[in-house]
Amino acid sequence: MNPAISVIVTTYERPDALAAVLRGLGDQTDDDFEVVVADDGSGDSTRRVIHDADTAGPLAGRVTHAWQPDDGFRAARARNLAASRARGDILVMLDGDCIPRPGFIHAQRRCRPGVALRGSRCLLDATATERVLTDGVPVEAMGVMAWLGRRLAGRVNRLPQLAGTPIAALGRRLSWRTFRTCNAAVHRRDFTAVDGFDHAFRGWGYEDSDLAIRLGAAGVCIRGAAPAATVVHLWHPEADRTLEGENRTRLDEVRTSGRTRAVEGLSSLDAASDP
Length: 275
Hints:
By secondary structure, this protein is of the alpha/beta class. Helices cover about 30% and strands about 15% of the residues.
């Protein structure tokens, strides 16, 4: 049987962070899911991390490696490539530096046709991130008191237990501006209807906003995910934003056009061209 959920984990040359994310996915209370790693051209170290996760441990037999050649920042295409190989009805987007806590998968089951979910994140500082990656500190399993100590020390911007959308507000419609594919879920039917991400977005910026706008134009409502879906975001230097202006221009065009389908999206993939 196909899994109910496919978690698409985007990565590029950060195998230590990816290993921590896969560890968090292996510690879920709900295990009816698969993992498809959307690899934007990483080398052998990343390949080994994925191989190890798929051959031993709680994720064994449930991890697929969707790799494309390194040709610059092409996260939109990498996610589409992973989605084309995913089998679940719910596509959960997760960045390869965002560690899920044990209730993450269960919280994403609220996603359904016509409703996409936006999850929250807590930001670790550089020191706390180093401890996770070097010492293997299992932040995904930490309790409230441990998190409180890190919050008081300034190592995290907020407590994950208090982040996310409050239960009383879970039904509220959110703006496309809140949608970030470091932690989001969309039903396959809706993702396919808008032709997925747009490959025209290269470099940092706005490919997730573009998807959210087109989903909204197609009648999909964005709602907040429950607090259990909040992830722990590892620190990293700011990405190169050289192409941000060009991507912003593309975003402005889709906002005014009312267009729902990507210019160059999921349907444009040539699977035979990718290993």
